[in-house]
Amino acid sequence: MDEIILDVFDASFRYPNAPAYSLKHINFQVRKGEFLVIMGENGAGKTTLCKMLSGIIPHSQEGVYFGDVTICGLNSKEHTLPELCQHIGIVLDDPESQIFTTEVLDEVAFGAENLEIPTDEIQRNADWALQVVRMAGYEEKDPTRLSGGQKQRVAIASALTMQPEILILDEPTSQLDPIGTIEVFQVVRELKEKYNMTIIMVTHKSEEIAQFADRVLVLHEGEVLAMDTPQRIFRNKEIVDKAWLAVPQVSMVAVELEQSGIPLDAFPVRLEEGVEVFSALLQETEARI
Ligand SMILES: Nc1ncnc2c1ncn2[C@@H]1O[C@H](COP(=O)(O)OP(=O)(O)OP(=O)(O)O)[C@@H](O)[C@H]1O
């Protein structure tokens, strides 16, 4: 059986003075090497869940917290944030707010230095991280002068320098143009395929989800509405409508066809699957005429 690297057991959280719980009785597990996407409408609890998975809740965010989150075998309540940071890294949606220094290399080493990792190890890790995010050669550049995509890749490199087994990315491409978005997804794909890293990403980019994600967790009003493959999630109109999910274009066409009573050989989520399924349908139709 695949190794469970992250376990969330009956976890609930309410912000101080908030009238209601932002997360309610959350249960799920993530396997090592899995790419899990978190989707859900505004206010569904996605960022709060990222904070809970990374240990920010309960260590840096006050509130009422019940349940257990176990990260690489460590219960987040029983271990300090620096201990947890060596297993799980988090990158937020706004790269600007994550810049602390004036040179890319210092920036990438910053978090690891705060964990008191030996200097030569930080240097090795930082060099590796900059290679992975394709920013080698930018060590002495001013991070504030980089493009949005480059800043976000530097933020990912900073998290990678701490050599986490799990990387959480909270809407890493929400402020990026299409090229910046592709660059970030390419890095994520390499981390998964080459380094077997476990990735948890909040994103609405359905075409990329269809391409890369193993499973999708859908949050709705602080609860887990569904957790399944992109194909089963995007095919389920009830879930899609309830959580206002963005759906890949080929899946939208497929749903319309199925609803009109036209059966398909398979349900497409990726463009190339759509081409295959719809050409087969056209050929069948032509053969009948
Ligand atoms: N610091 C806070 N204090 C009080 N309530 C909060 C705080 N942060 C978030 N909330 C509330 O918790 C709920 C979940 O918010 P959260 O930011 O986790 O949702 P989200 O799915 O990430 O939304 P978005 O897509 O808009 O970023 C919302 O009702 C929000 O208003």
Explain this structure.
It comes from Pseudoflavonifractor hominis. With 289 residues, the protein is α/β, with parallel strands linked by helices. The chain folds into 2 domains: 4-247, P-loop containing nucleotide triphosphate hydrolases (Rossmann fold); 248-289, no CATH class. Helix content is 42%, strand content 21%. The protein is built from 12 helices and 10 strands. The strands form 2 sheets. It has a 6-stranded mixed sheet, sandwiched between helices. It has a 4-stranded antiparallel sheet with strand order 2-1-4-5, with helices on one face. A hairpin with an 8-residue loop joins strand 1 (4-14) and strand 2. Helix 4 (104-114) runs parallel beside helix 6 (148-160) and helix 5 packs across helix 6. It is globular. The chain starts with a strand and ends with a helix. The mean pLDDT is 91. Residues 15, 18, 22, 40, 42-48 line the site of adenosine-5'-triphosphate (ATP).
The helix/strand series, from N terminus to C terminus, equals: EEEHHEEHEHHHEHEHEEHHHH
Estimated structural class: alpha/beta
Strand content: 15-25%
What is the tally of beta strands?
A: 10
How many angstroms separate the termini? 50 Å
- List cofactors, ions and other ligands: adenosine-5'-triphosphate
User: What is the overall pLDDT average?
Assistant: 91
Number of helices: 12
By CATH reckoning, the class of the largest domain would read Alpha Beta
CATH topology category name of the largest domain: Rossmann fold
Give short descriptive properties of this protein:
289 residues; alpha/beta; Rossmann fold; 2 domains; six-stranded mixed sheet; four-stranded antiparallel sheet; 12 helices; 21% strand; globular; binds adenosine-5'-triphosphate; ATP binding
